[in-house]
Design goal:
alpha/beta, Spore Coat Polysaccharide Biosynthesis Protein SpsA, Chain A, 60s Ribosomal Protein L30, Chain: A, 2 domains, 8-stranded mixed sheet, 5-stranded mixed sheet, 12 helices, 19 strands, 30% helix, elongated, Nucleotide-diphossugar_trans, 2-C-methyl-D-erythritol 4-phosphate cytidylyltransferase activity
C-alpha cells in the first residue's frame, strides 16, 4: 500500500498484453504462477493505494482477466504492438483529472516500494518524466554465430526498468502523435521532447523473459517472505533426593536429583518454552498443565517434541537452538555432545543446529550454593522460506 502523497493523484497502467513466447510454458508469463500467485497479480499488488489501476490484457485473455481481476482494476483490450496497447490504456484515463501516470510492465512482479517512491519523488519535484534504471557495469560485446565480433563502450549506458512515470497529458499527447512505436515509453517520450529523469532501479526488479527468470523470481519471493522469530526460555529446578539428574534428555549421574512435576529436565524445559515463545504460544504450562496428573513424572521429550511439531504445523523450521545450563555440579562438559545429539533427535534437526553449554555462577546465588540448576535457552525459527 503506497502512502506517497502523490499516489492518490496518480494512475497506474500495467501493460500485460504480450504473449511472452520466450518464457515457454503453457500460459503467457503474466498468467503463470509465482509463489502461489500469478505474475500479473503480484505486479498489480505492488501499486495498491494509487488513484486508479488500468491493466491492458490480450483480447484472448479478457475472459480470464474479468474473472480474476474484475472489480479491482480497469481492464482494456490490448493492440498488436506494445505502444498501441499502452496508448489504449492511456486513452481510458483521458479526462480523469489525474495529473500523472506510472506505466509498468506486467512481467515485472517484484518491483519494490522504494523504486516506486523514487519515481514519484521525481515527479513531485517537478520532473515531467522519471524512470528507474541500473547503470551497466559489465563489458559489452557484439557477437554473431557465437563469436565476438566487436565491442561497445558501456560509459553512460543504463538498463531500463519500470514503472516509468509521466505527466499524464504529456505522455498521452506523445502517443497520439507517434506512429513509429518504441521499445518503452521513455524512448517515445524522449523522441517527443519530454526530458526523463533517471532514478535508482533495483536488481530484484527483473523482467521475466527467459525460463530461468522464473526460478530466480521464486528465490526472491521466498527471501522477501522469510519470517524469522526469536524466543527465549528460562527454568529452574531445585535439588532433592536422587542419584541422577535429567538434563537435555540425558541421565547424568549425581548424588542428588531434581524436583519437579515431570522429570524436571531444566534444560529441555527452557528450550521448549523458547520455541513456544517464538511462536507466541505461551509456555509448557499452557499446553501441559501441572494440575493434570497425567503429566506427573512425564519425560520432558514429550513437551519438546510437541513444541517442535507445532512449529512445523505453523510453517516454521528451527534455525538454531542454544541452551546454557547454570550449575556448579554436575559437570556438563563430558555430556554436552550427547545432550546436543538427543535434543536434535527429538526436534528432528541436524545436531549442528543445536548448542549445549554450561557455566557456573561463581558460587553466587542458589546455583552457587548448589541448591538447584537453572537453564536459559534461545530458539530461532524461520518461516516462509
Amino acid at each position: 500500500m503506497s502512502t506517497h502523497p502523490l499516489a492518490a493523484r496518480t494512475a497506474v497502467l500495467i501493460s500485460a498484453a504480450g504473449r511472452g513466447s520466450r518464457m515457454g510454458g503453457d500460459l503467457p508469463k503474466q498468467w503463470q504462477a509465482l509463489s502461489g500467485r500469478t505474475v500479473l497479480d503480484r505486479a498489480i499488488g505492488a501499486f495498491q493505494g494509487f488513484a486508479r489501476i488500468v491493466v491492458v490484457v490480450h483480447p484472448d485473455d479478457m475472459g480470464r482477466a474479468i474473472a480474476e481481476l474484475g472489480g479491482r482494476v480497469t481492464l482494456v483490450a490490448g493492440r498488436d504492438t506494445r505502444s498501441g496497447s499502452v496508448r489504449a490504456g492511456l486513452e481510458t484515463l483521458d479526462g480523469s483529472g489525474l495529473g500523472h501516470v506510472l506505466i509498468h510492465d506486467g512481467a515485472r512482479p517484484l518491483v519494490a516500494p522504494p523504486v516506486i517512491d523514487a519515481v514519484l519523488d521525481a515527479l513531485a519535484a517537478g520532473a515531467p518524466a522519471a524512470a528507474p534504471a541500473l547503470a551497466v557495469t559489465d563489458a559489452l560485446w557484439r557477437g554473431a554465430v557465437d563469436r565476438v565480433t566487436g565491442f561497445a563502450d558501456r560509459e553512460g549506458l543504463y538498463r531500463a526498468q519500470t514503472p516509468q512515470g509521466f505527466a499524464l497529458d504529456a505522455i498521452l499527447a506523445a502517443h497520439r502523435a507517434d506512429s513509429r512505436g518504441a521499445a518503452d515509453d521513455v524512448e517515445l517520450a524522449h523522441r517527443h521532447g519530454i526530458p526523463v529523469t533517471i532514478v535508482p532501479g533495483d536488481e530484484d526488479n527483473l523482467k521475466l523473459t527467459w525460463p530461468g527468470d522464473m526460478a530466480r523470481a521464486e528465490r526472491i519471493t521466498k527471501r522477501r517472505n522469510m519470517d524469522v522469530r526469536l524466543g527465549n526460555g528460562y527454568d529452574v529446578h531445585a535439588f532433592g533426593p536422587g542419584d541422577r539428574v535429567w538434563l537435555c534428555g540425558i541421565a547424568v549421574p549425581h548424588d542428588l536429583g531434581l524436583v519437579g512435576h515431570s522429570d524436571a529436565d531444566v534444560g529441555m524445559h527452557a528450550l521448549t518454552d523458547a520455541i513456544y515463545g517464538a511462536l507466541a504460544q505461551g509456555d509448557i504450562g499452557r499446553h501441559f498443565p501441572p494440575s493434570d496428573p497425567q503429566w506427573k513424572g512425564a519425560a520432558s521429550d514429550i513437551f519438546l517434541r510437541h513444541a517442535a511439531e507445532l512449529a512445523g504445523r505453523m510453517g516454521y523450521r528451527l534455525g538454531n537452538a542454544d541452551v546454557t545450563l547454570i550449575c556448579e555440579r554436575p559437570k556438563i562438559g563430558p555430556h554436552a555432545a550427547a545432550m546436543q545429539a538427543r535434543l536434535a533427535e527429538i526436534m528432528g534437526v541436524a545436531p549442528d543446529r543445536v548448542s549445549v553449554k554450561a557455566t557456573t555462577s561463581e558460587r553466587l546465588g542458589f546455583t552457587g550454593r548448589e541448591e538447584g540448576i537453572a537453564a536459559i535457552a534461545t530458539a530461532t525459527l524461520i518461516g516462509g522460506a
